[in-house]
User: Fold these one by one.
Assistant:
Number 1:
Amino acid sequence: MCAKKGGRPPSPKKRQHQVGIRLNAEELAQIKEQAAKAGLKLMPYMRGIILRGKVIARLDEDGRQYRQALIGMANNINQMAKICNATGYIDACKGFYHTYQELASILKKLSSDK
């Protein structure tokens, strides 16, 4: 047989151990509902709860749109700051840089789901 080529490489941290848990129907439904609200499948949700004690929910559609808009604004401000720097408009650069830092702070808060 020839060796398998291509595809996804094997995970370096393969999960080899299994832990069982018994739940009644209500408990399972509640956990599945919470996982769905967080935007995760059941096992990643449970693993997050067990290992970290909390799960950070993924952004909903509105949150993703806001995040994309903020990213676009931050990029525009960064480009303007570079132009101001190159042409010598120091005062304008200071104002743009302050706004850029505020946007970067908001983006960091929004993307803290990692």
Number 2:
Amino acid sequence: MVGKGTWWMVSAWNEVKLLRVLQAVDTEAAHIVRFLESFQDSACTYLVFELLEQSLFEFQKKNNFSPLPVRHIRTIVAQVLVALAKLKELAIIHADLKPENIMPVDHAHHPFRVKLPSPPPSPTPLLNMSAPENAHIQIAKLLRKY
């Protein structure tokens, strides 16, 4: 859910635009969380994604932050790099990469298969509509302070 107000409306509009670009991607192969739809009422814009139970941070917390074996770390990092490569191909920068934003898909059936959510909305997205490759909307997400 995206709140109300001018900044939020612009941010929600840019986020939906970005997510529509990502809808054309094979999210399973790209290891990116699937965007399903968006809708709005008079107060908010709602973004609907595939349901994923927890983040890598929550998974580690549940396991008392015990270290993962190197083979599992390699598996996770390889998938994150595939997702980042796809985002780079689309000229999208994910500037909020952290364990809270790495989502295990279904640990019981697919151990250590992960996906990245789309980059978070930024107060100042950069749209480069004059780029030669007009087919793609180039959006750079700026690092947010939190």
Number 3:
Amino acid sequence: MSARGTSKDEATPTEVEIAWLAGLLEGEGSFAMIRSRVGGKIYRYPQIIVNMTDRDVIARVAGLFGGSVYDVPRYIEGRKLAYRAQITGSGAAQWMKDLYPWLGERRRSRIDEVLTEYRAQEPTQVRRQRACSEAAAKRLRSDSTGQFVTGDSPGI
């Protein structure tokens, strides 16, 4: 089982809760890598998502994920209101690991694909440090004033 439950608000899920969630996700959930574009760069993160019309069930999932219940827009008039719970990033990756033994072959295969791609990426902390170092390297410190200036500034 995972190391979840380190904060006061988030309890460690029991084996029964994990098994229940696995059964629900086997039929109603999806496991994916999603894209996020930030500052012209594309980042990819694992995501678990489940939609259904039973709000109480989605509220229970959201509670396990430590998230919220979202309304799903109705695109066809007269359809029942649907709800969504989701988790993204390292939390989703940990849930995938915890759910794995309880899932069927097709879902396990998908989780293998998602986690393989996720592990192959540069860790967020390393990526952020590299981006900061690259930005700092583009700046030069003037010896006379101590002010930061770009490398394109005349007279330096």
Number 4:
Amino acid sequence: MDSASFLIIEHAPDYETGDMILLNKTNMVFGRESFYWKPDVSFHNVFVSRKHFLIYVESNHFYIKDLDSKHGTYIKRDFHQWGFSLSPTDG
């Protein structure tokens, strides 16, 4: 895994446009924190599930997978449920 890979925020609760999240693990869960659960990256918003989506690395490619979240995971306004390969221009 490339240690210099990161996600640039365009619009998200608790983050400013342009904020960067370092993708420093093979599997990173994004979601809403609770008393019993702390994801790798937290969003404080009722529309974000506790375990909302996963970004993972496979064969040196990044993928995003919705984790059966209530409101879904969208890339470029398209709904994605299964592993979707991310490219540097996705947003």
